[in-house]
Amino acid sequence: MTVRAAIVGTGGIAHSHMRALGRLRDRVEVVALVDTDPSRLEAFGNEFGIRRRYPSIEQMLQAESPDLVHICTPPWTHTELVVRSLEAGAWVLCEKPLCGSLADFDRISAAEESSGKYCSTVFQWRFGTAAQQVRRAINSCELGRPLVAVCNTTWYRDQGYYSVPWRGKWATELGGVTVGHGIHLMDLLLWLMGEWQEVTAVADTLDRQIEVDDVSMAIVRFEGGALGSIANSVLSPRQESYLRLDLQGATLEVRALYGYSRDNWSFTPAPERDAPNPLDYPAEQDVPSSHEAQIAALLDSMERGERPLVSGREARRIIEFMSALYKSAATRQPVARGAIVEGDPFYHHLAGKVG
Length: 355
Fold this sequence. Notes:
Elements: E1 3-8, H1 12-23, E2 28-34, H2 38-48, E3 53-54, H3 57-64, E4 68-71, H4 78-87, E5 91-94, H5 102-115, E6 119-121, H6 129-140, E7 146-156, H7 170-173, H8 177-180, H9 183-193, E8 196-204, E9 215-222, E10 227-233, E11 235-247, E12 250-256, E13 265-269, H10 291-304, H11 313-331, E14 335-336, H12 345-348
C-alpha cells in the first residue's frame, strides 16, 4: 500500500522532508501541500511537481484525507496542527520542537488516544546505524555501566539569523538554543544513557539581541548513577556537535554537525578490557542519520499499526527534560524528573512564562 502524505509548511525544512520522501517514493506519495504564503506554496509546488495546494490545513484535511501529515511550520503552530491532523485520522511527523510545554504534549497524547493514530517528532540522530548499535551495546551491558557523558552542541548563528520574525521569541520559537539547536543531541544523549534523574542548569542570553537563551549548560544525573554535562551554544564560530560516552569498558564518541555516518564515530576500549566494538559492522550496512531513515522507520510502524519510536513516552522525555532545565536555570535549584506537574508554571510553558 502506498501511503498518501501531505506537507504542511513549505519553508526551508520542508525541502529536507520532500527530498527524503522522494527517495521513498515506492512507499509514499506526497499528494498535497499547505502554506499560508501563496508565493512560497506555488514555488515549492512547482519545484516538486505537486499540484494540489491549500491555504489551510482544514481545507486540505477535508479534501484529501491523507494517511500521514508532515508538520514543517514554525514551532508555535505545532500543537494545533498536530491535534487537527490526528483528529482527522492521519498519522503525524512533526518537526522539532514538537510543542512548547508538557501541557501541550499531554493534549497531543489525548488526541492520539481518541483518534487511534500516532504523532512522531523528528529526531533523526536516533536512526543512524551507528547510534542504534551503540544503544544495543549499552543496553546489553557488554561495555559495562555508563559512567560519564559529554554532550556539546556548539553552533553559530549570527544576529541576521534572528531576523526571521518568529525566531528569538518565547511566544513563537518557544525557546532558545536549548529548544531549537541542542535538542537533537540532548535527545540522543537521553536515549542512549537511559532515564535521567535530576538536572542542574544555567541558561542566559549573552550576545544575541533576542528574548530567548543563546547559551545553556547543565549537569544531569542518570538513574543508573552516571553523570553528564551539556553545553548548548549559538555563539561558537567553530561549529560542532560532540557526544562522548564513557562506560566501564570503553569510550564512544561522535563528532559531526547536522548528521553522521559511522565514519564520524570512534571507539576506544579501556586498557584492561577486551571490549567488543559496536561500530564493527560491514560498511554496506551503515545507514547515516537522516530524515529518510526516520521516515522509513515511521512507514514501517504504519504498516504494522504500532507506535513509532519517537512518540509517546519517548517523545515526552525530551520535553520534560527541557522544562526541567529551564526551571533549574530560573530557580537556581536542581529539578528532579517527575517534579513538574499540572499547576506548575513550567508545566504550562517550557520556561514558566505566563501569557
